[in-house]
Amino acid sequence: LDMIGEFQRAIEAHTGTGEDRAVELDLDRVESQKNFAMVSTLGYFLLATLILFAMLSILLYIYNLLRNHLNRIRMNLGTFMAFGLSPEFIQAGYLRIILLLVLRVCTSATGTLVLLQVILWLMARSGVSVPQALDHVSVLGNPWLYACLGAVLASSLLICRWQLRRFLKAPPGDLIYDRK
User: Fold this and answer.
1) Cβ contact 176:79 at 8 Å
2) What sign results for the dihedral spanned by CA atoms 154, 163, 94, 101?
3) From CA 81, how far away is CA 172, in angstroms rounded?
4) C-alpha radius of gyration, the chain, whole number
């Protein structure tokens, strides 16, 4: 689309500019295609930005939830460590819990999206008019959904692992007596 103007000038130089020329280009249509391409690119950029913002919000929520929980039970964890429970054992337990929590949330979100897709399919199949914006909704075939879910899962586990390591490297006495 960027070279259409140059192409038109080359055709005009070769065939002339009169009414009898064989090839005529509609520049208004070309301009509308350029505008559509620009708006489409801007839409994809905004969509990607919103997805990244949502993922960051989810990760910050999980980080703050874990940090507040660990600070609330720091004396209990210090006592467990003082009685011989290793930090690695505690960390493995928490990572297992967090993995199950994030997997349940991802499964329920995907299930909700699949339910929405089934409802839209049933509406279209029964003859109910479906809004045109929802005509092309496809959840199961969208690779971005799986990429985002995988990124949230992996990032959650990495952030929680880092937070737990940082928290559990303190000696048990510091955790029990709330020393910094």
Assistant:
1) yes
2) negative
3) 6
4) 29
Contacts of 16 (CB under 8 A, 6+ apart): none
pTM: 0.73
Other CB atoms within a 10 A radius of the CB of residue 163 amount to 19
Q: Please give the Cα distance from 61 to 53 (Å, whole number).
A: 12
- Token readout for 32 is 């509308």
In sequence order, the 6+-apart residues with CB closer than 8 A to the CB of 23 are: 11, 15
- The Cα–Cα gap between 39 and 126 comes to 34
Distances, alpha carbon 109 to alpha carbons 19, 69, 122, in Å: 61, 24, 20
User: Using one digit for the tens of pLDDT, what is the confidence trace for 98-151?
Assistant: 999 989 998 998 899 889 888 888 888 888 887 777 767 777 778 888 898 899
